[in-house]
Amino acid sequence: EQLKLILDDISKNLPEIRSISYLTDKYYLSPSQLRRLFATHLGTTPKAYIEGKRLARSRILLKSGARVTEACMASGFTDLSNYIRLFRTNFGITPSEYRKGIISTEPNKYK
Predict the structure, then answer these.
(1) For 15-42, what is each residue's pLDDT tens digit?
(2) What is the mean pLDDT of residues 61-83?
(3) Is 108 strand, coil or helix?
(4) Among 28, 43, 50, 96, whose CB has the most other CB atoms within 10 angstroms?
């Protein structure tokens, strides 16, 4: 199925994906077709899905001892301030607090 190919591609190439145009161009879909595919099968948008995957990957990197900037860039975020804001919004603590071992009680909804 096309969605499975897209999800596998996202997982394999997460740091390189800069916008949904990467996916629309590669899979010959319009942005609205891609959004509809995600909404129908995953109940989310492509952008939210990719952000969630990036945040989940960054948590793994932080747990393994990566610095905040390293985790940010290796997960595909291009802006450190935006990454910190998204991390705090989703998990209730900053990446550096998480790295220091302060674990949020909020479950990871992007596993």
Answers:
(1) 999 999 999 999 999 999 999 999 999 9
(2) 95
(3) coil
(4) 50
Whose tokens are 């995957």? That residue is 53
In the numeric block, the tokens 């800069």 are attached to: 18
- 92 is written with which tokens? 């209730």
How many whole angstroms separate alpha carbon 103 and alpha carbon 91? Answer: 9
* Rounded distance between C-alpha atoms, residue 44 and residue 36, angstroms: 9
CA distance 62 to 53: 14
- Taking 3-state DSSP, the helix, strand and coil percentages for the chain, each rounded to the nearest 5, stand at 70, 0, 30
**Angle, alpha carbons 7-43-107 (nearest 5°):** 85
